[in-house]
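Collaboration report, partner site 2.

Our partner group contributed sequences for two proteins of shared interest, and the home lab folded both. The records are reproduced in the order in which they were received, starting with the first partner submission.
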Amino acid sequence: MNYIDEKFYELVYSWQKIDLYDLYAHMVKGFKNIPLLTQKSVEDFFSKFQYWGKIDSENENFESFYQKAKVFKNNYQDYIWLYEHLCDYRSKYVLYAILNNYYNFDFANLQNAQNFLFKQYFDLDILPTCKDEVFVDVGAYTGDSVLNFISSYGEKSYKKIYCYDITEEIFTKMQSNLQHYSNIEYKNMAVTNYNGSIGVAHNDFSNSANLTSTKSNDIVDATMLDTDIQEKITMIKMDIEGGEISALKGAKTHITIDKPKLFISVYHSNTDLIEIPKLVCSMTDCYNFYLRYYGGCIYPTEIVLICIPKND
C-alpha cells in the first residue's frame, strides 16, 4: 500500500466510524475555519449554480454539507468501489483530493490534482492518438471541446462530429468558431432518455449552465442518441448540467454495441461521482476508468470520468 492508498482508505473508513450528525458538524466547523473571503466566494458560487444544496452562513443553512455527509455515510463503499476500479494513480489521487476537499476543505491536494498539461477531456497519457472518430459532443456550447479535440489530435482524426446544445442563442457563436472545419452537424436539441420535447431553464449568470427542466415553457426538442444517430459512434463527451445520467441511458445501445470512448462530467450533483461510473459499468464491463480534474483549487468542479475500451 502506498501513501495515496493509505490516505484514501483512512479518509473513507473514518466516515463509517462516526454518525451522520458528526460528519455534518465536522464539515460545518471546517467551513467556518476557512478565510471569510473564501467562505463568501463559495457561498456566491453555490447561489449561482444550485447543484449541490444551499450554503448560507448568515442563516446557519448548510444544506449542502448535510447532503454530502449523507452520501459519505451511506455510500462510502461506493467510493471504495470506484477507487479500486480506477486504472492509474493520477486518477486515484484526483478522487482522494476531491473527497478530502469536500470533507476537510483541503485546498492544497485539490490544487495539485489540477490538470494543465493537456486540453480538457483529452489527456494524451490516456488516449495518445485518434483516427476516424465519430465524435458526439453533448453540451457543445461554443464548440470549445471540439476545438480542444482538434488541437489535440488534428483535423484528420475524425470522420464526423455531432454537436448538441439546448441553447439556441449560442449556436451562431458555435458555428462561427467551427466554420473552418468540415463534417460537423449542429443540433439544437436536448439529449436524454426519450424522444419528444423538454423545457430549458436559463441560468442568470452563464449560458453554459442552462439546463433542461419540466417547469420551463421554453421548449426544445429532446432525443436519445440511440435513435438520433444511426452510424457507429466512437467517442462521446457529455457536460449537460446534471442531465448526464438520462443521456447515458438514452445511449445504452451505442455504448453496449459500439463501445465508444466516454468523457463524462461527474460533478453536477452530490452523487454523480459514484452513480455515473456504476451506470456505465452496469451497461458493459468493457471499460477502463480514469478521473481527471480541470477545475479550480477551492471547490471541485470540472471533474471528468474517462472511459476507454479495454481493447484500445
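Second partner submission, folded after the first:
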Amino acid sequence: MRHGDKIKNLSRTASHRKALLSNLAIQLITHKKIVTTLAKAKALRTYVEPLITKAKENTTHQRRIVFSHLQDKAAITELFGPIAEKIAGRPGGYTRIIKLGARVGDNAETALIELVDYNEIYGKGKGEVKEAGKKTRRAGGRKKAGDTRTEATETTKTAEEPKTEEKAAE
C-alpha cells in the first residue's frame, strides 16, 4: 500500500530525480515553456511553483534558498528579475500544463508546461496587476445622479403622465 506517499518518483533514484527536476526548472525559467512528458510536467509543477513564490520576496535569504535548488546564476537572475515582476499580483498557479498527445517513438503522453503570464494567446492583457476597486456588486447599490437607467425610467414616467391627465379630463 502507498498511503500518504505523494511524491512522484518518476522511476528514478532520489539524486537523479533531484537533478532532473532542477534542470527542468532551469529550462522552464529560461525559456518560459518546455515540452516534456506529462508525468515530468506534473512533478515539475510541484517543484517549481514554491520557488516562484519565493522569488516574490527579493531578499538574500530567498535567493540562497532558490539557488540551493537550481544552482544556476542566470536562471536566478531571470527568476528574481522579470518573472518576479510579472507574477507579483498573482496569488499562485504560475504554471499551466497543456496535454499534447502521444509521442511518436514510445507513445508517451507529452505535455507543454509554461509560465502563465508569458503566454500571449491565453493571457491577453492579464499581465498587469489588477486593481482592487474594480469589483462588481451584484446587489445593486444606491442610484447615482448620472445613472442612465434612472434617467430612462424618469423620461417614460413623464411621457405617460400627460396621457393620464387627458383621460381624466374627458
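Feedback sent to the partner group on the second submission included the following. The longest strand covers residues 95-102. The radius of gyration is 28 Å.
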